[in-house]
Amino acid sequence: MIQDISQKISWLQENPLILKGICRGIERETLRVEKNGHFSKNMHPYLIGSSLTHQWITTDFAENLLEFITPTSTNIDKLMFFLKDLHSFVASSIKNERMWPFSIPYIGNKKTNIKIAQYGNSNLGKMKTTYRIGLKKRYGSFINTIAGVHYNFSLPIKFWKEWNKQQNNKYYNDYISNGYLHLIRNYYRFGWIITYLFGSSPAISSNFIKPKNKKYIFKKYNENVLYLPWATSLRLSDIGYTKTAIEDLNITFNNLNSYTSSLKKALHTSSDKFARLKLKDKKGNFQQLNTNILQMENELYTQIRPKRRLYPGESLINALANRGVEYVEVRSLDTNPFSPIGINKNQILLLDLFLIWCTLIESPEMKKKDFLLASKNWEKIVLEGRKPYQTIYINTKNEKITLIEMGKTIFKDLKMIAKVIDFNDKNTPYYKACQKFMKYLYDPDLTYSSKLLRLILRKGIKFSGLELANQHYKALISRHCSDENLALLKKETKRSHDKQKKIEKEDSLSFREYIKKIILPC
Fold first, then answer.
1. To the nearest whole percent, how much of the chain has pLDDT over 70?
2. What pLDDT is recorded for position 172?
3. What gap in Å lies between CA 160 and CA 323, rounded to an integer?
4. For residue 513, what are the contacts with CB-CB under 8 A and spacing of at least 6?
5. Which distant-in-sequence residues (6+ apart) come within 8 Å of 520 by Cβ?
6. What is the DSSP letter of 173?
7. Which of 4, 202, 241, 344 could lock onto 453 through a cystine, CB 3.0 to 4.6 A?
8. What angle do CA 8, 12, 14 make, to 5 degrees?
9. Is the pLDDT reported for residue 355 higher than 50?
10. Which helix (H) or strand (E) holds 205?
11. Cα torsion through 415, 416, 418, 421, rounded to 10
């Protein structure tokens, strides 16, 4: 079931410094809302920079859907400090608005106007907006305003070199890429435990649900709040999470070539469903970038995916094919509603441990039936993870084990890894994070989803969300930015506006020509 990795952990104990230098980055999405909880009607604030070109503050699907992006760092405290400064900088610039603390927005009216993100008049800006128009046509507006947190993670090169020797994989041309794909397969197998612990979207506005959708038997708090009593993350269900199923696209993570080939095929294969939506509207304006299964690589929504930093104008497919996997992006994290920045340090510590564990344990190649089995486990935890005596499948024969029993095995390993990383740290932060979250296995009431559901059932989505949003706003503006980061952010704000003007000025191609050149790589 789960390989005994005590020998591998002993190897780590003999080489504790090879884990020194783990690199991390965080992307956090949050909606700007009015003080009454409704979507902000204001454009992206000029004072926080250009959403097209700012390195750290941009927008996602909607004009009011902020996205904060940290630089990568090997120091968790510095990473969190910068993320807090980003939030404080923005909070001080949107005094009449708040940042919504939940992954699921409050939709009080089905006629809520959602303005698609605008990026100016350049071809690049038009492309980004057109891509989002396509998302609206394909999946709807409400779903695309759901927010989350992405966690970018990479292990030190020194670790990979030593790990490759230990595994006797001397003849692999790209042992680092193989190592990350190994990790990714195990995240699909076992990552549901992260959703059990950190899932924070057990309830949803009734206006999200289409009248014909009767798949789930919701309980009703009031006319606007629907919930499932044991749910952890409706954001990751087919109610909320806009996704193209990787098993339907035959995308696997068994080797880099098959992954990039399958992704490339999806980018170049026409979809009858999306072709019926039409490429252009009656006025001749693009309403999708193309009618293929995926408009762009970013449209492949998965729990975790391989990534690499890109050169200017480079596609992710080409970057991965030419230079291999550099890090993984965990995309299955709900916004932590109890943190002003959507995530806390203990979560990061546990994620580090879990991703290292996914690297150490065996990871056989996955066939379609294996992905389907993993999907069944994720669905169980997403929809009823806190259900007493919940079980998960351990093989395709439908044999099961309790979540608690499986969780105990995982946490036993995590605690041993924690002791290795805590080497020479008297505060033992990793071990303490383990101890904290292990309690959640035995007491589901401690989980974020349970705490949030109790709050929503007392006050509703709107008022509980506004209460937390106001608390977070006060906390953010009371701390202010550090002088160093404030100066940096002001400089970046000016640079981003200047950069956007330069891009717009230098355009030479028509938008149609630009799309043909940029959207269909390879």
1. 96
2. 59
3. 16
4. none
5. 267, 268, 290
6. S
7. 202
8. 115
9. yes
10. strand 203-205
11. 180
Q: Tell me which DSSP letter residue 72 carries.
A: P
Q: Which residues pair with 159 in a beta bridge?
A: none
Nearest-Å Rg of the Cα atoms of the chain is: 23
What pLDDT is recorded for position 521?
Answer: 44
Give the CA distances from residue 190 to residues 305, 345, 373, 397, in Å, rounded to whole numbers and listed in that order. 15, 22, 11, 18
170 burial type by CB count under 10 A (0-12 exposed, 13-18 middle, 19+ buried): exposed
Yes or no: say if 519 and 289 are a contact pair by the CB < 8 Å rule: yes
Lowest-confidence range among 115-119, 178-182, 369-373, 385-389? 369-373
Q: Which pLDDT value is given to residue 88?
A: 97
DSSP-assigned letter for residue 521 = -
Q: What is the DSSP string of 112-153?
A: ---PBP---SSHHHHHHHHHHHHHHHHH-TTGGG---EEEEE
How far apart, in whole angstroms, are the C-alpha atoms of residue 249 and residue 373?
A: 16
- Residue 41, both tokens: 């009607």
Q: 476 burial class (0-12, 13-18, 19+ CB within 10 angstroms)?
A: buried
- DSSP 8-class letter at 62: B
Q: Which two tokens stand for residue 130?
A: 């057109």
Average pLDDT score over the chain: 93
Query: Residue 204 and residue 465: Cα distance in Å, rounded?
Result: 12
* Length of the chain measured in residues: 522
* 99, 104, 108, 110: CA torsion to nearest 10: 120
Note the pLDDT of residue 241: 60
Residue 470's CB is within 10 A of a number of other CB atoms, namely 13
Going along the chain from its start, the domains and CATH numbers come out as: 6-519 (3.30.590.20)
- The pLDDT assigned to 312 comes to 85
pLDDT tens column, 146-189: 999 999 999 999 999 999 988 876 555 689 999 999 999 999 99
Task: Determine the 3-state secondary structure of 167 from DSSP.
Answer: coil
Rounded to an integer, what distance in angstroms lies between the CA atom of residue 155 and that of residue 176?
Answer: 9
3-state secondary structure of 402: strand
CA 288/CA 130 separation, integer angstroms:
6
Q: Which two tokens stand for residue 63?
A: 């004009």
At 443-479, the pLDDT tens digits run 999 999 999 999 999 999 999 999 999 999 999 999 9
Residues ≥6 apart with Cβ < 8 Å to 107 = 142, 205, 207, 208
Q: What is the pLDDT of residues 271-330, one digit of tens each?
A: 999 999 999 999 999 999 999 999 999 898 899 999 999 998 888 999 999 999 999 999
**Token digits for 172?**
């692999």
Which residue type occupies 365? E
